Amino acid sequence: MNLESTLRARRDSGHKLLVAYVTGGLPVGGGETWIEVVRAVAAAGADAVEVGIPFSDPVMDGPVIQEASRLALEAGTTPRGLLAELAGAGGGAGGMGVPLAVMTYFNVVHAFGLDRFAQSLSRSGVDGAIIPDLPLDEAGPWMAEAVGHRVETVMLAAPTTPDERLVAICAASSGFVYGVGLMGVTGVRDSLAASALALAKRLKAVTDKPVLIGVGVSDAAQAVEACSEADGVVIGSALMRRLLEGAGSSGVAELIAEVRAALEAG
Questions:
Q1: Are 20 and 7 in contact (CB under 8 A)?
Q2: How many CA atoms lie within 13 A of 153 on its CB side?
Q3: pLDDT, mean of residues 198-213
Q4: What DSSP line would sit under the chain, residue for residue?
Q5: Is 12 annotated as catalytic?
Q6: Residues 123-130: what's their mean pLDDT?
Q7: CB 103 within 8 A of CB 46
Q8: Does domain 3-265 have CATH number 3.20.20.70?
Q9: Residue 188 pLDDT > 80
């Protein structure tokens, strides 16, 4: 099982796709661990989980995920330690029930070394990588190492991306194509940006790969709206806000279950 084949199979069987984002290493409280949160959202209906590797300068992330990353770093979370925890938990579909992708920044990848990072992901049961500050034109060396270790690289497309570049991004992306719903950082919004629907439609016109919209998808109603054009959504800040407010794994599982039920109802 890998990320793209799993998502394709779910989509082709008539389901809208749901990926949940969890900041790795975040102290959850109540005797729970972040690994238990990953398991909970998978059990609640997420088709895959995006695990954020905390970084001190998360340029794509808004206040909620920045705070989660800060708390995780203060608790002593490191990339190596995080991946070791995933490996110890069984990793990927074997231990979590769904594929995993990590989200991190290229400084982390570079510090590891490209080959070592790809190898570490594979050994930890991670199926994909999302590196938002790695542009397509500079992604070749990383992708070569990732492919060698069977790690899929999810590429991002923005509302301002020209049509011809969308084609190239979709061709290079594996796992899924991540449509950034609006210009700006991650965060909870009151409504879905019109740019999210426009981008999803443009992406679907040029690729058969799963197209998911993230950044600015905050609740079940917005997820359903996004999926009127996209194959699925990524839920991040809304989930992490619940964790920061002390909801624990049951609270975030409730959110994912709400979104899943809404997507199934259409």
A1: no
A2: 29
A3: 97
A4: --HHHHHHHHHHTTPPEEEEEEETT---BTTB-HHHHHHHHHHHT-SEEEEE---S--TT--HHHHHHHHHHHHTT--HHHHHHHHHHTT-IIIIISS-EEEE--HHHHHHH-HHHHHHHHHHTT--EEE-TTS-GGG-HHHHHHHHHTT-EEEEEE-TT--HHHHHHHHHH--S-EEEE-SSS-----SS--HHHHHHHHHHHTT--S-EEEESS--SHHHHHHHTTTSSEEEE-HHHHHHHHTT-HHHHHHHHHHHHHHHHHH-
A5: no
A6: 96
A7: no
A8: yes
A9: no
The residue type at 60:
M
Query: Which residues does residue 57 pair with via DSSP β-bridges, in sequence order?
Result: none
67 catalytic? Reply is: no
The whole-angstrom separation of Cα 265 and Cα 260 is 9
CA 216, distance to chain mean position in Å, is 13
Catalytic residue (choose from 4, 47, 61, 152) = 61
Least confident of 164-168, 185-189, 207-211, 218-222: 185-189
Instruction: List pLDDT tens digits, range 9-65.
Output: 999 999 999 999 999 999 998 889 999 999 999 999 999 999 999 988 766 677 899
* Tens-place pLDDT, residues 162-183: 999 999 999 999 999 999 976 5
Question: Which of 90, 102, 64, 97 shows the shortest CA–CA distance to 216?
Answer: 64
The predicted structure's pLDDT at residue 62: 75
Enter the pTM of the model.
Answer: 0.94
From the list 4, 47, 50, 145, the catalytic residue is 50
